[in-house]
Amino acid sequence: MREALFIKQNTEKWKEIESEPVTTSDRSNPDVLTDHFIELTDDLSYARTFYPTSPVTRYLNGLAATMHRRLMLNKREDRSRFVQFWRIELPLLFRQSHRLLLVSFLIFLVAAALGWVSAAHDELFVRLILGDDYVNMTLENIRKGDPLAVYKGSGQADMFLGITINNIRVSFVAFILGLFASFGTLVVMFQNGVMLGAFQYFFYERGLLLPSVLTIWIHGTLEISAIVIAGSAGLTLGNSLLFPGTWSRAESFKRGAKQGLKIVVGLVPVFITAGFLESFVTRLPLPPVVSSAIILASAAFIVWYFILYPIQLEKRMDGDTDTAD
């Protein structure tokens, strides 16, 4: 069969397969997903045999890999939906957003650098960003010999609840503002980055950078990382409107909103853990080695679960797909 005829006969079927929902909970007959996967692998085998170097073969290989991941998501869906979400579905969503995660991180990093430099060249900049009340309170605490006493100033339970709710709110704001062509999300990332840079310079200027890092980053490693990841969720939403690709803009937005929302929801446990650390652990007079261990463990978790594990999971699933073929 000529390649053009092969493509013409199967284009509609491939489009239908490509638009399959991600989970079986979205369809009335889950068996259709399996039937489509079998048909797709048959077409892929045929294309590999007769058109090995054709773009259609590469397209079918990618589509088959995507279908295989969907099948893995739906495996034992009813009995282990919660486990599957955290073990497979959410990491794969993170993998799809890795490029936007890099963009979010770079914007935040550049903003933090600008905040640092601005604070170094303008002594009023820190007050403009952090507020006179906070700066005056911290200066008073420094004079008393406890520069980070702010973390001891309120009840632990109330502090935990307030911090956690606020951080979750910030993450959802960063996500929702992606509606404004991703610009709103970038503004949130920039504001938070500038604030962090100015905040750290404030302590550096007074010779307290290391003590501040060993204290603040006990909770800040998880908290700041989660905010940056929430930024990738907002960019996912915004890009679904800006770059719909082969989808209609409405369908692209629907998919982007669903993907971004799941990412933000997936960050809730991270914010809860960060809130717990800030309220119950940061205030403790911990030895530097203990503080460093908590910070490094938090950073290792972020890098593993949000970056390395999704890459490994995708490669493993793609390998399983090649074996199935």
UniProtKB/TrEMBL annotation:
InterPro entries: SpoIIM-like (IPR002798). Coiled coil: none annotated. Keywords: Membrane, Transmembrane, Transmembrane helix. The keyword Transmembrane applies. The keyword Membrane applies. The chain crosses the membrane at residues 100-119, 168-189, 201-218, 224-247, 259-277, 289-308. It comes from the Bacteria. This is Stage II sporulation protein M. The lineage of its organism: Bacteria, Pseudomonadati, Bacteroidota, Cytophagia, Cytophagales.
